[in-house]
């Protein structure tokens, strides 16, 4: 009797439940939809990226048909397509770990993001719990950040500080999209100001790095005394998304063919935005004022603390080595949580990647000034704090560390 009653209720539920629909036809959208089980309210997907356009670990879907309070499950498996590594096809899929954060990121409006409950990992899949609100639900690997978010940040910066915040177009991509950036510079004696350059998303899937960039901009425009001093003192350029093309198409970017943005820093770059960034950095260096270049990324799934990647110390001048030590010490004193910096940097070199000389940080070391500081910050994506608030906090703390570095004289 009980079983009949249960089946009857289930049937009633099915009659009343709206059809679940999944779409990816928007900027950043990406998934292969394997199955939608309307009865069990399960949606089975894989990352949809083309491995020729980078590691297929990013995914981002819109789900319609979930009633307010109704629960469902998003079941994610890894891409089955053969992925590239070290510049060539490996003949096997990417480890699914890259695609499976401990919690998914979800939004009711496609703008404000929160984490789901913890996903349940089983063999080849992870199941994330969803709860409907009656409208569409956007669900992603991490908080998305597309050119729309860049544009909103630039517009807000110019509105808040019209006297020194100026949006600019760094380049037009190979696929015809603008790469937008923000320049912060106060009037007067610009050529005497130290130049600070920060870019994110050389790897398209690492959306958290753009949120770190946003946190830095928010801090820089704030009324914090050190932020005011820094924007008076320095000329600062921030590029929230370098690989705009693959961010828009929902591809991973890293290890894209023929190589990705962060293996493109040589004399004849493939990507116009890399060439344009090089031109700007060369100009700052020619004026002897290239002070700081930071490249923002997200690391591997097991890297639960942010850390810096830097080039081999023996390739630096004594001055640059000292500056780097001082900056890393200040960063450790400022990135104090909830995402806590691992104070020990990792050193890239020939054993890290065959094209290590073409990584942006190394190019800057090779083309910058004697005193230039270049480093890559990897901010953890697989923690409960790897959300918009946690990433923006890292950005604010990074701003305070840069201010401490530039505003106080070194030893
Ligand atoms: Zn990266």
The strands making up the biggest β-sheet line up spatially as 13-14-16-15-17-20-18-19
- Strand-residue fraction? 25-35%
Q: What percentage of residues falls in helices of 4 or more residues?
A: 25-40%
Secondary-structure-derived class: alpha+beta
Oligomer: single chain
Radius of gyration: 22 Å
Number of helices: 9
- Estimate the global geometry from the Cα principal axes: globular
Describe it for me?
This protein is an alpha+beta fold and about 400 residues long. It folds into two domains: about 1-140, Immunoglobulin-like (Sandwich), CATH 2.60.40; about 145-405, Aminopeptidase (3-Layer(aba) Sandwich), CATH 3.40.630. The protein is about 30% helix and about 25% strand. It has nine helices and 20 strands. The mean pLDDT is about 95. Zinc ion binds near residues 203, 206, 254 and 297. The site of zinc ion has 4 residues, from loops.
Short description:
The chain has nine helices and 20 strands. The protein has 411 residues and is α+β, with helices and mostly antiparallel strands. It has two domains: 2-140, Sandwich (Immunoglobulin-like); 147-407, Aminopeptidase (3-Layer(aba) Sandwich), CATH 3.40.630.10.
